[in-house]
Amino acid sequence: MSFKSPRGTTDILPEHQPYWDYIKRVAADVSRRFGYRRIDTPYFEDTALFKRGVGEETDIVQKEMYSFEDIGGDHVTLRPEGTAPVCRAYIEHGMSSWPQPVRLFYVGPMFRYERPQAGRFRQFHQFGVEVFGDPSPQVDVEVIELAWLFLRELGLCDLTLRVNSIGAGEDRPRHVQALRDYYSGHAARLPKVDRDRLERSPLRLLDSKEPESQALADSAPRSLDFLSPDSTARWQETLRLLEGMKSVYPDLNYLVDHRLVRGFDYYTHMVFEIEPKDAAGQSTLIGGGRYDGLMEVLGGPPTPGVGFAAGLERFILNLQKQGVDFDSQSHIDIAVVHMGEAAGRRATELGAALRLKGLSAVVAPPGRSMKSQMRFASSVPARYALIIGDRELESGAGALKQLSENGEQREVPLTVEAIATAVKSTLT
Ligand code: HAM
Question: Fewest CB atoms within 10 Å of the CB: 105, 242, 261, 399?
Fold first, then answer.
């Protein structure tokens, strides 16, 4: 019998970790520049949180959740997204009494039972931000700006930003009715899956993946034509602010896409997505928008919210495509190479003392020839090999050999201070 990682999941091997460290560092750094603070929520929640928050009719709730009854009989779900859990935390911890708006960010795994393909996994990772307690278009545009700066700091360019407004909850029924009328007139052309959706949730037809439905979506009734005067004013202000952002980011090209409705029930007003220009398949890097009614649906005080989430696997694919190389970050400082029993024991102590001092150090495997230990040191890879044997123990000085570059070798006293100083002086 042989085991493999479950379908749609991947191991993140040591050689890929530098990409992950980098991307998470940039996410945290950019978030903090905007005053966002980190929150971590559990990897599983009450199933009802997602049913209510994300919406019973959405693909996620209908067919993509990892839900189960635990041994105690509770119904729980591995989180498919981060917004509903962060809202739950806002309510549970009384964050409405904190100074508003509350700005939060998170990074972590999400789980969706989807059909795996390039850039689409069953366990994937999101960096997300959420802002609570500020209904203004300024914050909508701040969130888009944060997404844009994140992409830029990672070195990704040639991107398309698509935006739309789906209006307030009160604007929705008239648009939904118009969609129902329009699509009913073309029902014969719709594939079965979308004919079923038409009854339950006509908005979903606008972002359908079915070619026939996509063709129909072009001339479908547009949400912007059903906005109340208030919603229209907000939307126009959002567009003015976005236009203003171009004075800082001249490459911030956006297009209003009336088919952009997003796959969750909680959205209101502004929604957006960012993808590479040459996009094909599962390529959306970032998706988000405003969700002013969600907090109440989850039993909290009426609180506007807006945010986005970025799929980190897709960023890493793009970084690798660009050939960004992080290998040099995985060096360690010293490998201790030792010959003889006494030197072996001293190597163990020296390794411990060097690590306590803040350096990274490994001790070569005992019982191997000098040549094999040196090969091990190069393969780690270590910047230096510290070589000790009986003679070195007696004289109190070992050989410190630089493994990269010129291979220079010199004597150092066998004290942690002397070794650390020698290594640090050439590391910088
Ligand atoms: P979402 O559009 O479902 O939104 O996901 C956001 C991003 O997560 C996508 O653009 C994509 O990069 C990534 N993603 C989604 N599913 C997968 C998958 N199966 N494999 C790999 N990557 C994936 C949300 O999750 C909302 N909670 C975003 C949000 C936050 N809206 C407001 N605040």
Answer: 399
Inform me whether the pLDDT recorded for 322 exceeds 70.
Answer: yes
Mutate which of 90, 117, 123, 284 for ligand 1 pocket (most atoms within 8 A of beta carbon): 284
Alpha-carbon distance 235 to 220, whole Å?
A: 20
Q: How far apart are CA 105 and CA 312, in angstroms?
A: 14
- Per-residue pLDDT, 342: 96
Considering the chain, what percentage of its residues have pLDDT values greater than 70?
Answer: 97
In 112-178, DSSP assigns E strands to: 123-132, 159-165
Q: Residue 305 — pLDDT band, cuts 50, 70, 90?
A: very high
Provide CB contacts within 8 A for 176, sequence distance 6+.
Answer: 202, 203
Q: For residue 59, how far is its CA from the centre of ligand 1 (angstroms)?
A: 13
Q: Residue 291, SS3?
A: coil
State the angle between helix axes of 229-245 and 137-153 in degrees (0 to 180), rounded to the nearest 10. 30
Query: Tokens in use for 245?
Result: 């952002």
Distance from the alpha carbon of residue 287 to the mean position of ligand 1, in angstroms: 6
Q: How far is the CA of 164 from the centre of ligand 1 (A)?
A: 17
Indicate if the pLDDT at residue 401 is higher than 80: yes
